[in-house]
Amino acid sequence: MNTLIRFAKSAVWALCLSALIAGCVAKEAAPDAPYLEKRGNVTQLIVDGKPWLALAGELRNSSSSSPAYMDTIWPKLKAMHLNTVLAVVSWEQVEPVEGEFDFTVVDAMIQAARKNDLRLAILWFGAWKNGITSYVPTWVKADRERFPYIQTKEGGTLPILTTLGQNTVEADARAYAAMMKHIAATDAVQRTVIMIQMQNEVGLHGDTRDYRPEAVAMFQAQVPAELMEYINTNRANLLPELQEALAKAGNKTSGTWEEVFGVGDYTDELFMAWNYARYLNKVSEAGKKEYPLPTFVNAWIVQPQDLHPGDYPSGGPQAQNHDIWRAGAPNIDILSPDIYLPDFPGILTRYARSGNPVFIPESSAGASGAANACFAFGQLGAIGYSPFGIDSRMGDPTTDPLSKTYELFASMTDLITEHQAAGTIGAAWLKGGMNPETTLTLGNYKIKMALSQGRMSALSSMPQSTATGFGMAIMLGPDEFLIAGYNMQTTFAPVDSTQGIVGLSKVQDGAFHNGNWEAGRWLNGDETQLRYDLLQALKEGQSGFGLRFSGGAPTLQRVWLYKYQ
Q1: CATH class of 426-564
Q2: pTM for this structure?
Q3: CATH code of the domain occupying 35-213+271-411
Q4: Closest Cα to residue 476, out of 372, 384, 561?
């Protein structure tokens, strides 16, 4: 009997140990929820244990509200070589009756994305869309006592929920948290949903700040201690816009809003930025307690015709307000720009300051969009790029410049993200009349990328103002580069001009298949000679040879370099 008891006990312990080991292995094997991680000088989105490059597109605002409408759209998005779709979930559809939640649209969206091997970034349209209150449930719209609107300086009422409504933020956060809890329960294993956008282009239209009595009282009171602590602790590293305002006001360490920041529109804007940031931080915090996905907010950027805050949404996450948003919304991970203006590189560079992760939720498609995506990924280490209204811009994926660019980048995602982290990648955004050429520096080489002109000489005419091109350079070794290009030419020179002239040792075109480079032609002669005025080229420190990329579709060339005197 003792032997049987000992055997039984041993069996039980063995089963327990096996279960414990199995549980540990399962926990170890299950990847974390998507998260952001600093790698080198960039922040990357980690999905299923590796960096994710979001080759994305955003649906029009109402498209995702109808699963039937979307049935034929999903396969087309996949055919366009997207891997990520930005889609709206609205508060009014999730909670049509207060306290009763309906996630039918969320479930349909997730299932359709999975079926088409796509990931999702969900746009939570709660209290504000484009700064206006329009996607809230009827029971919120109808109850002005519980959910108050903003007042103007003259006492008028705008159709915009005030940031100071306690009932509003609690109801918004409760609905959002319920959605995140549902996503965690239904999608945490598959990880279809990888990011969340909080609201859409928040900020106050029509006035510089809220003039409700409680808002006026807050504006006239002391700047909140948390904000002053952030400013005083980080004063040396604040963005120049804020530093200038503080200096003009005497660099005070406490005081009212006008005492600390000065009298004027910018102070009104900072006040609104703080209140929008605090509101969205509460909503995001409630959601992250249920499922901690990365969150971002998007900015309606300042337009050339805008004279004052309120002409654009005052207090939104525009570049000049980033310090206030960082102080007020630690649960927001990325402050993103929606860029439709011509100077994409200049605008995006402002939004990449102070280590802000780079993600573009709304911008252009077509050849301009392809150039934007190349610059964002290659020069600023972007997490993702997304044209707006992608479901109404679905061209032929076999010829569309953005589709072909996404297809190319998808084949080399691991290489791009590896070199983003290593800092051995660069990119050129080329536009006739604005920026026809760019020179990158990687390792010991200057890499000049210019809009394609065929065989050229010193007397060649400049490209037409409508031309668009782009290039991405990845340094594979001290004298070896991979160049992706579209409608452009590339030449090389040493960083140290005393090192002589750079020649092309070998050039191959090719492509990546299953992550592996497969070489095509060995390029030489007519394919690499850019000019015949060799004496003039020599005076310019050039060999006369380089790489040429057509405007049909982006392609890859691998080049090995050498120097000669």
Answers
A1: mainly beta
A2: 0.92
A3: 3.20.20.80
A4: 561
